[in-house]
Amino acid sequence: MANAQTLGRRRLSEEQKKFYAENGYLLGLPAIYGPAEVERLNREYQELLKLLRPGEDEKEIREWHESSRYLYEICVHPQILDYVEDLLGPNYYLWASNFFAKAPHHPSKVGWHQDAYYWPLAPHNSVTVWLAFTDSDERNGAMQVIPGSHLGGLIKHRRSSQTDSVLTLELERGSFREDAAVPLILKAGEISLHDDRMIHGSPANTSDRWRTGFTIRYSGTNVKCDLSVNPHFKTYLMRGVDEFRHNPVGAVPEARYGRLGRKHLSIEEAQKDEWHAGSKSFRRDS
User: Fold this and answer.
1) Which terminal CB of the chain, N or C, has fewer other CB atoms within 10 Å?
2) Alpha-carbon distance 281 to 172, whole Å?
């Protein structure tokens, strides 16, 4: 029998799950948050911005679900968790979150990359939820994906300081078909979901509007982090049981807004560019 928590919630159809498996992403889901809730989310987001130090920007709000109850509550939204369960299965955990914000007419972009290349995680069994805090479209720098690219395994990324991307590890042009890119158009309050091996990026914001998104990363409990690369990795079991117990467990935050007192390290930041070299799914053909 349905209860108050399950009324009105949806599950992914077999057709949607098939589309995700073949294409590596999913759009077209009903909004998670309505207009009034989106307004509240953005108002509370301003409280986090007040915690930034001089010289920092929005991208520093990373893994603050560990220190801010406000963000943790977004990450554990039951409808989001239902969709993730339909893709990852019954046992999975939360481990990362961060904001990607582009100011009006700002030239910065996100170069083509695969999320999994940045993470010292194995095996590859992760889903990213991209929650739109503002409308996201082609004019203000919506994320673009290459459908089906997750099926080709990880491609070697090249490090470059001569780039206008916020990332320094990128895929080289010619290692995939850019003309196949699909923009992920979202209204504020809506989400997209994508596989950790999906090739994606985003152009500059040429509009008069902000483009702000909040990403949430979930992985199956079979996924293990290399703590020698990221010693601060923390997991929060979202559904099911953690039968593997590979990773440290985090504490649920009590403060509504709190700054995380340490930095998590990606492969890029730890200068471990060859970490994936031994993986069976790794390709050097870029």
Assistant:
1) N
2) 18
Burial letters for 10-35: b for 16+ Cβ neighbours within 10 Å, e otherwise? eebeeebeebbeebbbbbebebbbee
Instruction: Give the integer Cα–Cα distance in Å for 153 and 119.
Output: 14
Tokens coding 70: 């406000």
Phi, psi for 3 (deg, rounded to 5): -120, -175
pTM recorded for the entire structure? 0.93
DSSP-based three-state secondary structure for 249 = strand
27-283 fold: Jelly Rolls (2.60.120)
**What pLDDT, in 10s, does the model give residues 28-87?**
999 999 999 999 999 999 999 999 999 999 999 999 999 999 999 999 999 999 999 999
Among 224, 215, 228, 250, smallest CA distance to 115 is for 215
Q: How many CB atoms lie within 10 A of CB 163?
A: 14
Cα–Cα distance for residue pair 246/104, rounded to 1 Å: 42
**For the purposes of burial, counting CB atoms within 10 Å of the CB of 224, is it exposed (0-12), middle (13-18) or buried (19 or more)?**
middle
Three-class secondary structure of residue 93 per DSSP: strand
